[in-house]
Write a structure and sequence with these properties.
There is one protein chain. The chain is α+β, with helices and mostly antiparallel strands. Helix content is 51%, strand content 13%. The chain contains 21 helices and eleven strands. The strands form three sheets. Strands 3-5-9-7-6 form a five-stranded mixed β-barrel. Strands 1-2 form a two-stranded antiparallel sheet. It has a two-stranded antiparallel sheet with strand order 10-11. The chain is globular. It starts with 26 loop residues before the first helix and ends in a 5-residue tail after the last helix.
């Protein structure tokens, strides 16, 4: 008897993870939001999470990354345009994100915990597409800088806070909403922004200047305006540089090319030249770094939140795959070694989420509490360093869980893997974050004291944490070669902060497993949880539940 073979059907393959609620199905996210005061917006977050988890919305993320932005420097008659064209999927993601307040909730609501609530929206939106998160973050983060100049604030903040996405290339006075970008770094300086050669000449006594120079990275070049650093007679200063001049004419900024990046493909990043471009100063001359740092600090929060969000998406994809895929007679999720690995990845994801939202609460409390402000200054750099660093490693491990299926472009995992390193680099690489922690310790010793005060609040909840905390204090008794040891110190601070956040907010089986695995064990790869860890409970808590 001859055998038949069905060439059109693939057996033992996992279905696509889609049509699930990115907020309601995430227990660790809901716990973090509740613990940090943002649960009052959960109904809106769940509604947004349902939209984002739809198959058609997830496909928008794929389309926006496959159909890349295109720079249009000139029209067909040779006139300068300097515009960027995007696929409709990009615009739809921007529209639905702005409509659902991912860019403004922290500024438009009076509720306590509004940073936490807004971070929850950014967290779930990030899982659909990294690239559109860049202009949304910039638009969110620019508000404190704009408030330095009341005249600028009055003109721009109402458009920034609008819930209408308006991509038209028009002066802001004619638009329903506005987005912002940033131009800081130059070829010769990179992170050393004080090496800037771009200069600004005063036009009058109304705070108007003409800027000439070149920026190596201009984020979100389609934006309506940019915060720009340039040299004046009194030193490096901060300016608002709009796409259009007050008379409605196109401003003198010229985009040279878009960057061909590793990831973050749906978002355009550019090189730009300013040829006597119109700009208005923000704050005093010579105070550029200080005046732009609030924007930088807020974007660093989003880097930490964004990395934990991308990690969550990767872990969700891994767990989903293992629920349906069989090998050696069992579903993968039932195999002991795979249980170890999945539970370990889930712990990493939950710890990153817990730390991100503890930072968000710090931003909330900083408005009225000086200790919270000191804590947040140091802890944001610590959290950005560690969350961004670990997520790169963990997303790579998630690809391996799916095997060859995780390595092909039809899977979302390769895109997540390319996207995730940008958060480590953007707004200061790992070394910059570590040096900022040291600088904070030197300029404001109270900041590291505030971090230890936070850690002390979890003392007595876990024996491994208590021992780790005692040894951590020893790192600061010897200040010799502290800069050389900076990464070691900041890594330990991050692990302690993650552990403290977990011990105070999540079920014991999660927090105790994390402390045991990260504070007492010396194993360096995922999937090395000690025997006895409650892997089934950890995996079940992390599973994304389809609608």
């Amino acid at each position: 008897m001859s055998k038949t073979f069905d060439f059109g059907t693939s057996l033992n393959q996992s279905p696509v993870l889609e049509n699930y609620n990115l907020f309601a199905s995430d227990e660790s996210l809901k716990t973090a939001v509740e613990a940090n005061g943002g649960a009052w917006n959960n109904e809106n977050a769940a509604r947004f999470g349902e939209i984002l988890g739809r198959a058609e919305t997830l496909e928008l993320g794929n389309l926006a990354n496959k159909n890349l932005p295109v720079l249009k420097t000139h029209d067909r008659f040779g006139n300068r345009l300097d515009t960027v064209e995007f696929h409709p999927a990009y615009h739809e993601l921007m529209r639905v994100s702005i409509e659902n307040e991912t860019h403004n909730l922290a500024w438009t609501k009076e509720n306590p915990g509004r940073y936490t609530a807004r971070s929850a929206l950014a967290f779930i939106k990030q899982q659909v597409d990294e690239g559109t998160s860049c202009p949304l973050t910039m638009t969110f983060a620019v508000v404190p800088g704009l408030k330095i100049n009341p005249e600028i604030a009055g003109e721009w903040i109402p458009k920034v806070l609008s819930n209408e996405y308006d991509p038209r290339f028009l002066p802001v006075s004619e638009k329903r909403g506005a987005t912002f970008g940033m131009a800081m770094t130059e070829p010769q300086g990179g992170s050393d922004v004080r090496a800037s050669l771009t200069f600004a000449e005063k036009s009058n006594d109304k705070g108007e200047y003409q800027i000439t120079g070149r920026k190596w990275f201009c984020s979100a070049p389609m934006s309506d305006a940019f915060l720009v650093l340039a040299q004046t007679e009194k030193g490096l200063s901060c300016f608002l540089l709009p796409r259009f001049k007050p008379d409605g004419q196109k401003n003198s900024l010229y985009f040279q090319r878009l960057k061909d990046k590793l990831g973050n493909k749906s978002n355009a990043s550019s090189e730009v030249e300013f040829h006597g471009a119109y700009a208005k100063i923000i704050g005093e001359e010579g105070r550029g770094v200080a005046n732009i740092m609030e924007m930088v600090r807020h974007t660093r929060l989003d880097c930490a939140v964004g990395s934990s969000a991308t990690l969550r998406r990767a872990v969700a994809e891994s767990l989903h795959h293992c629920k349906y895929r069989k090998a050696f007679g069992k579903f993968l999720i039932e195999q002991p070694l795979m249980k170890n690995l999945l539970a370990d990845l889930a712990l990493e994801s939950e710890a990153a989420t817990a730390l991100s939202f503890r930072l968000a609460r710090g931003f909330d409390e900083s408005e009225t509490d000086e200790t919270a402000k000191l804590f947040t200054r140091a802890a944001t750099a610590i959290g950005k360093f560690w969350n961004c660093k670990r997520a790169v490693f963990a997303v790579g491990e998630a690809i391996e869980v799916l095997g060859g299926n995780g390595y092909v472009e039809d899977s979302v995992l390769p895109r997540l893997y390319r996207d995730i390193p940008v958060n480590s680099i953007w707004e200061g690489s790992g070394n910059v974050q570590c040096l900022d922690v040291l600088r904070s310790m030197q300029k404001e010793p109270e900041s590291i004291e505030a971090v230890f005060e936070e850690l002390q609040s979890a003392k007595g909840l876990n024996e491994f944490f208590d021992k780790f905390l005692l040894k951590l204090k020893d790192e600061f008794t010897n200040l010799e070669n502290l800069e050389f040891r900076a990464r070691i110190v900041v890594e330990k601070l991050a692990l302690a902060l993650q552990s403290a956040a977990l011990l105070k907010t999540v079920p014991d089986f999660v927090a105790e497993s994390f402390c045991l695995a990260r504070l007492s064990e010396k194993n360096l790869s995922f999937g090395t949880l000690p025997f006895g860890a409650e892997t089934d409970k950890i995996i079940e808590r992390a599973n994304p539940a389809e609608n």
